[in-house]
Amino acid sequence: MLGQQFYHETVRNVIVAFGTMFNNIQIVRKNNTGSVIQSMKVPLAYGPKQKYLTRLDSDPSLANSTAITLPRLGFEIGALTYDSARKLNRVQKFKKVKTSVDDANKLDTQYMPVPYNMEITLYAMAKNSDDALQIVEQILPYFQPDYTLTINDMADMGIKRDVPIILNSVTYEDNYAGDFTSRRAIIYTLAFTTKFYLYGPVTSSKVIKTVQVDQYANLPAVEPTREQRYSVAPNPASADADDDFGFSETSSFFEDAKNFDEKTGTDINKP
Fold first, then answer.
1. What tens digit of pLDDT does each residue of 130-153 get?
2. Which CATH number fits domain 10-204: 3.40.50.300, 3.30.2000.40, 3.10.129.10, 3.20.20.70?
């Protein structure tokens, strides 16, 4: 079972799709008359919340150009758990006929995927309440409580699947303490659960186009008598596995004790 190398990048694709949802959030700042004086795109990066807080604490100077800028969005993944409620029939398979010229007579098969849930936490950090609320209000209306994305689950097999992203909770934290030189950080923490599937290896095999069965009588005998041959082939013979085709059935009758030789494709006497 283990030892066959495969990597479909499923978890990576889910993480990228999640981050893409929040990479174009913008905020505006207005003066007392209501005129817009500044508009900015909120930067997004993958990383834990403590990474950004540590940078804020280590460089509290507001005049230092190397200090981390707020507002900012960050996210990180959490636990992966098996979801038995979405379990599929493990013996069923996906099938896809290869389209390249070299592999035209090959068929790719793959067993049904395994359902998993992944926890993802999104952090919205700002230095004032208005910036933080602008970010949050641009996110929450889309989750009721879930938002569904469609991703290419298995590009090699041509499988696309909807991935629900469920908003579980929103918490608020005002991380301000100390004197006037300390930087304030207002943090909204949004906890999400993503529901997706993990896929096993893809098996490639040749397409069977002819089935032939020889029937014998008197099997206990040293030389049993061959009585009938039953053959089935697609009609037309050039049909591929994903074509709409029928079958040609042929029955032949014999009174000998010959065997069919797979190498030569002829009937031969037993040695």
1. 999 999 999 999 999 999 999 988
2. 3.30.2000.40
